[in-house]
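Quick question, first post here. What does this chain look like in 3D?
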Amino acid sequence: MLRCAILGLGYWGRKYVRVVGERRDAAIVAVCDPSAAAIEAAHASVEHVLWRATNDPRDIFAADDVDAVVVATPATTHFDLVHEALDAGKHVLSEKPLAMSVDACRHLVDRAVRAGRTLFVGHTFIYNPAVRAAKELVAAGDLGSVLHLHAVWAAPGPIRHDVNALWDLAPHPISIMSYLVGAPTAVSATGQQILPGELEDVAALHLRFGDRATADIHVSWLGPRKTRTLTITGARRVAIFDDMAGPDKLRVYETAAEELLLAEPGRISEVFEAPAHVPTIPASEPLAAQLAHFVECCRLGVTPQGNGQTADDVVGVLEAAHASLAAGGMPVVLASAPA
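> Answer (accepted):
Ran it through. Tokens below.
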């Protein structure tokens, strides 16, 4: 039984309360949040609660009956909390981003290795069955050899006050794209402050993945509706992932664009009237699958798929995008680019 503590009982923390509570090989023994109301709400959300509650993370780190800590607090607090948890000998599952710089991420990865503990970062969409099905299409070359990816991550809040929309929302599409086509080699970013304050509420990123792919990402926490879409365009087929679309989250359209345009120049809109293929996606909750992998890694000492190196790569893109944004959109070459 993996004995867990949840730090932070906001949107993601409450989700972890539920998925940990549903497992037979893990249990919540403690929760921590500065808000008594948040603790009470989490307590009321589950039956037969046996955990204890605190508003001081040090109580969690000092506890002998806590094996693993889930860090679901604001992004700017992750580094300190993850560091203290590792120093206390705990396994750690941290929400994204792991830290606010590549150097900080690497420090935590090294600390986890020295401590002999699992460090796992919650890039949840990597565990989405539809995203994994898209990965198979890309890997097999079924869409085409050169791809363009376009993602929209928007919603009517929540609005953060510690990080901008880039750091809050872009980790998800960046992690998905890196999973599909490899690490980006260059990024540029622009953004806009809509609400009073100094943080960008809307941002746009352009990424290059060597000669194989390009990508555009739009993020906003001022969207009229929650949108989580990724379109992968190739010369042979187009795949559209829509996380809000119910069971049919992945649809594949036949374009044969090269053949159509060579044979008869003109529009190809008719091929998009209906999907040629809707893959059968197994029913599986990504967060639950992610947690299952974390538990397995803690118990068996397996290197997690969402490990610190993955977090390092994603934060590297975010850090470069942030620099580009500050420079008015100037492209920044990433460390992953060939010399």
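The chain has eleven helices and 14 strands.
Residues 239 and 290 are 24 Å apart (CA to CA).
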